[in-house]
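Sample entry (253 residues):
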Amino acid sequence: MAPQGMTRPSGKEHNQDLKKQKNLTLAVYYRIKEMMLNYDIVPGQRLVFVDLAEQLGVSRTPVNNALSILAKEGYLDFVPNQGYSVHKLTLEEAECLYEIREIMEVGTIGKAIRNMDDQKLAVLEQRKNDYKNAISDRVHRKLFVLDSEFHAAIIEMIDNPILSERYRDICQKIFLRFRTEDLVIERIPKIAAQHDELFEAVRIRDVDRAKELIKFHNENARQNLFAIIFRSENGRGKINSPEASDAVSSAVS
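Predicted structure, serialized as tokens:
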């Protein structure tokens, strides 16, 4: 029974309040994930939800709810009495993620090409051009987002939004593990050329060629990128050799 002088919220009002709270939680969730993608918060960093609430201009509840969701998805770690910290991807986890990514890409390319129409091909071409047009005199994090979006456009051709979302999630978890200041610009145009090759294979509906290109790109990324993002764990300093520079710059696709 509601206290005297107070009105019990109607069922409709209660549902509206729940919907508002859920929407606020999702908004905070995406904002924190964006902060991770922009490296405003970094792997291993401890998160204080009181500070986050103040920074985002919301109460503690939606922040706490959003952090809980991110922890369940593997983006954060939670330790009782210590709180949340940004998850630091291990080499074993990265191997698993790349294996899943390759299975997704190779496993869907045949259906993607069968489902392809002019509109879907135009989307793929636009994302290819978006990457090329974003190339400048430095490596920036937007390039890695655009690279993932190019490959995601092929997944999207099969019209399975859940799979497309899972694919982006895999890419983001790998992407969060490295910093752009470790990377070099020299081979970025070559990556754009690799996109051209894959686009052409899809355009002419050459499934076998597309599979070959996907496997080649993923194997290069697996071997080369891991040498860079896990080097500190192996006790090595910054890698400056030509081989390492090639490894880094070829790893983004």
